[in-house]
UniProtKB/TrEMBL annotation:
InterPro entries: PPR_rpt (IPR002885), TPR-like_helical_dom_sf (IPR011990)
Molecular function GO labels: mRNA binding
Biased composition, class Pro residues, residue ranges: 47-56
Start and end residues of each stretch annotated as Disordered: 39-93, 551-572
Skewed-composition ranges (Polar residues): 563-572
Protein name (database record): Mitochondrial group I intron splicing factor CCM1
Length: 838
């Protein structure tokens, strides 16, 4: 404990040394008045002498030094001091004690004040929890405001009934005029006009009748106005609230012509058309992707510059009207037209255009998306919002050139710019985008970075109860599985699958077809750590002791690994196949496709039907077959290929046949090559039928399939058939097709300009954009194994043809590249397409 204050210590020692205080038998200080006042002791644990000597001590020392002390009385201790000096000592001692008491009293008062002040700052547990709830509360997202006030059908129906009755009543009242000659002339002018009366039966719905009566009333009032009048007096038929009720009724009944009739009625009445009403009608035209009627609506009812929502809907209508496999050139032209008029579209319009460009899966469209992003920051919106940042980070996962893979460096740069430099709060979609970009790179350092960001997503921004603001969804887990399968990290993939199975997620967040596809791909890329033929044989135990259990007949078979599904990943290819077959069988059982009744116990996956929401698709079956292609024999793969499609009720696609042919092309020496040839013959017939019926196949897949089958024939010493296959390929896809260069669109012009209907600032160079229209071709690397076998067989004619055809494709491809680099772009003018120099 701390020492006592110096003043309190002085007061205590002075009282102890006072003559009125004496020590008792037990050593405690007792006062002369029967212990009426207790002595103050030092604090326990304090050591050392007092901070400074007591005030009476110097006086006693002076008396001794001056020799003023007299003789002592016998039997009594203490000095014999004169009475006057003793009185003086008592008075000085009393004054010092009083001063010390005053100081101690002031110290107590100050301590009480500090305690009271400290008591005011103490919060209760409830108050502290409320404070932390406010500080750590997750921000609420702002709700978008509706363009048109919310409709109340009952109130609108009452309003329309009242309008109908008023119009019918007005039509029966006589007109009152003060100028008789003018009245007679105007009545003669409008004599032919028919006006409905209360006796005239009105057919149709209520809003149709109101529109008919209003137009008739407006026609009559316009006819009564003098034709020589230079100023037009506004005719107020309805109030703005009544016009909005009539417009809402027409829109709710999806009658856009009637809604436009209401807008036309307001225009004839010289009333300003409400922005909400025009935007609501334009929204319906945009939903229907009717570009013509949307632009006619803007041309007829728009008086000034279109508002931001109207510009967005105008561009969005063009985007929706463009097929997904084509570049939305008309939408880009409208977007740049608004920029030229000084009225750039809102940021969400650029986001929609960029998303539409990336959805085409064309390299030139992806390059244009990045160019539009940089152009927007230059001419319209320098700082993107979180939604646009998310879209661009997601675009980094699908690079412009598919051969180069994803671009994790660019994604992390955008992530740092958004979160650190701009200080924006990311969303779950933003986290998913950056994790996916890192995962699809296929590089271990970036995949680990993706998992680190996922951990940061869970740990960051927790509220007072520890709940994270960013809860992972199925897209997050799919992104993590993308990274795990590319580096063959089966342990992480199994952990993610087990976590999803243990959770109580429903159809929206449970295990689905995409999750299982990634899991099967991870098993395919997984490299088992144990290889049987590389195992060291222990001395004294020959191969008979370590023979495979599959070949042992005397020993009882070991329990399948699929019934355990331990936490340790499979160590051999056989164990991989056991786990994969158990998972696939469990999916069949949970989805009701296997009615044999033999339930499969998969350990941690036992219990409820956790895989009941998995839908069997072609790509799921392809991923399951890929595991067999990698870890099983070719015979087992061929047997499964012929049975699995009918079992799950799916149809193979081009990738199914391509992967089967490429597996046959990797067959090993011996009997497997004969099995591969028989399997490839069956698959090749299906591929040729698919290639003849569908012209929209990917050119790279076409050439890969032909190369794979040619390699199968070559490995089985059928050189003439392989050579005939190459000739048939060259006849169907001649090298001359490569010289046909497509026209360069005008928005890809590279001429430096500050104004134009194209991006003015680009992020992609012309040589960075691959050519997606290159027809199928054969290079020498594809025909190298055939060339070697022809040389070994001495087939001179075949050797010369292989050299010729490979060089022909090579030079045609080089000429195409030069033509593309020198191509001129075309700018769309009012009178047609005019070439513009690059």
């Amino acid at each position: 404990m701390a020492s006592l204050p110096p003043g309190l210590w002085d007061l205590t020692m002075s009282r102890i040394s006072s003559p009125a205080v004496r020590l008792g038998r037990l050593g405690f200080a007792h006062s002369a008045r029967n212990n009426a006042q207790a002595a103050l002791a030092r604090a326990p644990g304090s050591t050392g002498p007092p901070p400074f000597p007591l005030s009476p001590a110097p006086a006693q020392n002076d008396l001794y030094n001056r020799g003023t002390l007299g003789r002592r009385k016998p039997g009594r201790s203490g000095a014999l001091t004169p009475r006057s000096e003793k009185v003086q000592q008592k008075q000085s001692l009393g004054g010092a004690i009083a001063e010390l008491e005053n100081r101690v009293k002031a110290l107590k008062e100050a301590a009480d004040v500090e305690v009271m002040a400290a008591g005011d700052l103490v919060f209760s547990e409830k108050e502290l929890l409320g404070m932390y709830e406010d500080l750590l509360a997750h921000p609420q997202q702002e709700q978008p405001t509706p363009t048109l006030p919310a409709s109340n059908p009952e109130a609108d129906l009452v309003t329309l009934h009242r309008l109908e009755q008023e119009l019918l009543q007005i039509s029966n009242e006589p007109e009152v005029f003060y100028d008789t000659p003018l009245v007679s002339r105007l009545r003669a002018k409008s004599a032919t006009a028919t006006t409905p009366t209360s006796d005239t039966p009105l057919v149709g719905e209520l809003h149709h009748r109101v529109l008919k009566l209003a137009n008739a009333r407006l026609d009559r009032l316009e006819s009564l106005q003098p034709s020589s009048s230079t100023s037009f007096v506004p005719i107020v038929l309805f109030s703005l609230h009544e016009y909005e009720a009539l417009t809402r009724t027409c829109i709710d009944k999806n009658e856009l012509e009637a809604a436009e009739g209401v807008l036309h009625l307001m225009k004839r009445s010289a009333l300003p058309i409400p922005e909400a009403a025009l935007t609501a009608v334009l929204q319906r035209h945009t939903d229907a992707a009717d570009v013509h009627r949307a632009e006619m609506c803007l041309a007829n009812f728009l008086t000034g510059a279109p508002t931001l929502p109207q510009r967005h809907l105008h561009v969005k209508c063009h985007l929706k009207a463009t097929p997904r496999d084509r570049i939305p050139e008309s939408a880009l032209a409208v977007l740049h037209s608004y920029e030229g008029q000084g009225h750039p579209a809102p940021m969400k319009t650029y986001t929609s255009a960029i998303s539409a460009l990336y959805s085409t899966n064309l390299s030139i469209a992806r390059a244009q998306a990045w160019d539009l992003f940089s152009h927007m920051r230059y001419v319209a919106h320098p700082t993107p919002d979180v939604v646009l940042y998310t879209a661009m980070i997601r675009a980094c996962a699908s690079a412009i050139n598919p051969a180069r893979g994803a671009e994790p460096e660019r994604a992390l740069d955008l992530w740092t710019e958004m979160t650190v430099e701009k200080g924006m709060k990311p969303t779950v979609e933003t986290y998913n985008a950056v994790i996916l970009a890192c995962a699809r790179s296929g590089r271990k350092e970036y995949v680990n970075e993706g998992f680190r960001i996922a951990k940061q997503m869970l740990d960051a921004n927790r509220d007072a109860y520890g709940r994270s603001a960013y809860l992972p969804n199925r897209r997050t887990l799919c992104a993590l599985l993308e990274g795990a399968k590319r580096i063959g990290d089966l342990a992480r993939a199994r952990w993610i699958l087990a976590d999803m199975v243990r959770s109580d997620a429903g159809k929206e967040e449970g295990v689905n077809e995409e999750i299982m596809m990634h899991v099967f791909h991870t098993y395919t890329a997984y490299v088992p750590p144990f290889t049987r033929h590389l195992a060291v044989v222990v001395p004294g135990k020959g191969p008979a002791a370590v023979q495979d259990t599959e070949l042992a007949t005397d020993a009882p078979p070991a329990p399948p690994r699929s019934q355990r599904f331990t936490r340790v990943p499979p160590q051999t290819s056989n164990e991989v196949m056991e786990e994969v077959q158990a998972l696939f069988q469990r999916v069949l059982e949970d989805t009701g496709r296997d009615i044999t009744g033999s339930a499969t116990d998969t350990g941690m996956f036992s219990g409820e039907k956790k895989f009941q929401h998995v839908e069997f698709t072609t790509r799921l079956v392809n991923s399951y077959l890929a595991v067999f292609y990698q870890h099983s024999s070719l015979q087992a793969s061929a047997t499964l290929f012929s049975e699995v499609w009918e079992r799950v009720g799916c149809t193979p696609d081009a990738r199914s046949y391509l992967e089967a042919l490429e597996r046959c092309a990797r067959s090993k020496r011996g009997r497997e090559r004969q099995v591969g040839l028989e399997f490839a013959e069956k698959v090749w017939k299906e591929w040729r039928a698919l290639e003849d019926s569908r012209r929209g196949l990917d050119p790279r897949m076409v050439e890969r399939a032909h190369v794979a089958f040619m390699r199968v024939l070559t490995l089985n010493d059928q050189l003439q058939r392989a050579l005939d296959l190459v000739k048939a390929f060259a006849q169907r896809y001649p090298p001359s097709q490569l010289r046909e260069v497509p026209a360069k669109p005008g928005f890809r012009a590279n001429r430096t300009a500050l104004v134009g209907a194209r991006p003015l600032v680009r992020l992609t160079a012309p040589n960075e954009v691959p050519d997606d229209g290159v027809p199928p071709l054969l290079m020498f690397s594809d025909l190298e194994i055939l060339h070697h076998r022809l040389v070994a067989a001495g087939m001179t004619a075949g050797i010369g043809y292989v050299k010729y055809i490979s060089k022909a494709y090579e030079w045609a491809l080089r000429a195409r590249r030069d033509s593309v680099m020198r191509a001129r772009s075309a700018s769309v003018q009012a009178d047609g397409v005019v070439p513009v120099a690059v």
